[in-house]
Amino acid sequence: MNRSMPAITLHDLTLGYERHPAVHHLSGVFASGTMTAIVGPNGSGKTTLLKGITGFLRPLAGAIDRGGLKPKDIAYLPQHLEADRSFPITVLDTVLLGLWQEIGMFAGMQRTHWDRVTQALFTVGLAGFETRTVNELSGGQFQRVMFARMSLQNAPVLVLDEPFNGIDQQTTADLLEVVRRWHAEGRTILVVAHDLALVRDFFPQTLLLAREMIAWGETRQVLTAAHLDRARTMSEAWDQSAAICRQEAA
Amino acid sequence: MSDPFALFIAPFGEFLFMRHALAACLALALGCGPVGMLLVLRRMSLMGDALSHAVLPGAAVGFLLSGLSLYAMTIGGAVAGLLVALIAGAVSRCTTLREDASFAALYLVAIAVGVLIISMRGTSIDLIHVLFGTILAVDDPALILVAAIATLTLFTLALIYRPLIVECFDPDFLRSVGGHGGAMHSIFLVLVVLNLVAGFTALGTLMAVGMLMLPAAAAHFWGRHFWSASLIAVVIAFFSGYSGLLLSFHCNLPSGPAIILVAGCCYAFSLLFGAKGSLLSRYRSGPHLTG
After folding, report:
1. Which residue of B has its CA nearest to A90?
2. Do B166 and A97 touch (CB under 8 A)?
3. Which among B33, B39, B118, B280 is least surrounded, fewest beta carbons within 10 Å?
């Protein structure tokens, strides 16, 4: 993949709900092949931004240029999975869904597909779990299954919303290793994270959000005390009597 | 009566209406098993109940126009059920009201309209026929209709099996890969309505949902995967139909309630003794394993 080519460009983007902006006038580029952490306080618009990038939410204003990619070419792991973990589906079948773009609604499985699933499960440390149903898994094991599924999607852009929340240290380390491998393959990776130490250690790029952009760039230049203080003063609440925004595009 | 052949086989050999009823039960079981299982897994059991009541005004309009005509009442029922399903879906998508609430609101209106229409023209016997059905009066056209709906259901499920299962398990994922989750949901609702209409012709509007929900709820305690649970639901539904018909024949009971009561007994048995998640499995203690 060409790192100089922008993967996703935000043009004066405003995203929100019922006309109230959750992300306000955001412009910038997630360059191809970069790995960016998106950080900020609760309610700062991180999840909203990911929903916009993945096409789940339409912009209130501005635009998202996905560099020729369709929303379905972007692999997305939401924060609060709507997945029904009581559903009687096996780990094998769940991971196989990662091949959706190749097999679609009707195509049958080839031998190579099974091999890839087995390999993906091995990579996330779940070899031997194939026939278990997902309701028999712990939270960490289920997250490993989601990573295995994402591996198979073979998407050029991977978007993960707080994937390490509620996950133990060993599982986090294992899953970070998987993310590192994706990055080494030249994929563009966007991860919402709250653990600043982890972000400093692991992510070269960071976007600090507080309903608007506080800073975006090299992690050590973004996560400064001044920037973090500014982000903390963000107002979470909507102004119910807010006037119409007249701000010009940057 | 002690002869097993006379008890279990002869009623179907001797009487055409019993054979018709048994064939209708088999067709109903084949369609209702997997559809009911999906309703249970999607936590839509009560929506199935609401939809079964929503069929009533359409059937009533058919009855008003053509008397006790199977086709008129079936078409009317299907149209009313589909209309309620589509309106409820549209309301939940376009407003903040959730789908279960809009279903509840619409079915209450529908059942009131239905009873009102029937009472304007029919007698209480007609009302009882519409509400409780008469599976022993299933004739050739009714049988063909029920069988056609079962066939359509199985073919459609085979066609959309993969996205439908994903839509149940992880709707966000299906949406992210452009899998047309909304269309799958709508097709599924159409299948629910069609199977309710099939059940309605045999068991009446009040009992139709019984064949859909009770075998599926019972099978939930036995099947580990969707396909195995669906298969078990089909077996339980057919067993309920067969046993209910025999019970009705030998004890001179109304057939519809007899079938549903047998299905209810299967549910109670599964609840107590089922292989997974039942009361027995909860309190049964055995030696622990090594790993």
Report:
1. B225
2. yes
3. B280
- Taking one residue from A and the other from B, the number of pairs with CB-CB distance under 8 angstroms is 59
What is the nearest CA distance from A124 to chain B, expressed in angstroms?
20
CB B246 within 8 A of CB B258: no
B42–chain A nearest CA distance, Å: 9
Domains in chain A, please, with CATH? 1-69+157-164+188-250 (3.40.50.300), 74-155 (no CATH)
Q: pLDDT of chain B along its 291 residues, tens only? A: 568 888 899 999 899 889 999 999 999 999 999 999 999 998 888 888 888 888 888 888 887 788 767 788 888 888 998 888 888 878 877 787 888 888 888 888 888 888 787 777 766 666 666 666 677 777 888 889 899 999 999 999 999 999 999 999 998 889 888 888 888 988 999 999 999 988 887 787 678 889 999 999 999 999 988 999 999 999 999 999 999 999 999 999 888 889 999 999 999 999 999 988 889 888 876 777 777
Of A75, A84, A106, the CB nearest to B168: A84
- Which residues of chain A are within 8 Å of residue B171 when distances are taken between CB atoms? 82
Enumerate the domain spans of chain B: 4-274
8 Å CB contact between B174 and B163: yes
- Helix, strand, or coil (residue A189): strand
Backbone angles phi, psi at B44, to 5 degrees: -115, 20
Q: Supply the ipTM of this predicted assembly.
A: 0.82
Contact call for residues B184 and B114 (beta carbons, < 8 A): no
Binary contact (B179, A105; C-beta < 8 A): yes
Token output for B115: 């009873």
Could B170 and A83 be called an inter-chain contact, meaning their C-beta atoms sit closer than 8 Å? yes
Q: Which of B171, B172, B177 sits opposite A72 (nearest CB)?
A: B177
Which CATH number is B4-274's, of 3.40.50.720, 3.40.50.300, 1.10.3470.10, 3.90.1150.10? 1.10.3470.10
Chain center to CA of B196: 5
Specify the pTM. Answer: 0.84
Q: Best mutation site among B40, B159, B162 for testing chain A: the one with the most A CBs within 10 Å?
A: B162
State the DSSP code for B137.
Answer: G
Distance of alpha carbon A43 from alpha carbon A232, whole angstroms:
11
CA-CA distance, A201 to A176, in Å (whole number)?
Answer: 11
- Mark yes or no for CB contact A88/B41 under 8 Å: yes
* Average pLDDT per 10 consecutive residues for chain A, totaling 250 residues: 68 88 91 95 92 92 90 84 84 93 85 92 92 90 94 93 90 94 94 94 95 94 93 71 66
Q: Are B19 and B241 in contact (CB under 8 A)?
A: no
Residue in B with minimal Cα distance to A135: B224
Q: Establish how many alpha carbons lie within 13 A of residue A220's alpha carbon, considering only the half-sphere containing its beta carbon.
A: 1
pLDDT tens digit sequence for B158-205? 999 999 999 999 988 898 888 888 889 889 999 999 999 888 877 876
Spatial contact of A92 and A117, defined as CB atoms under 8 Å apart: yes
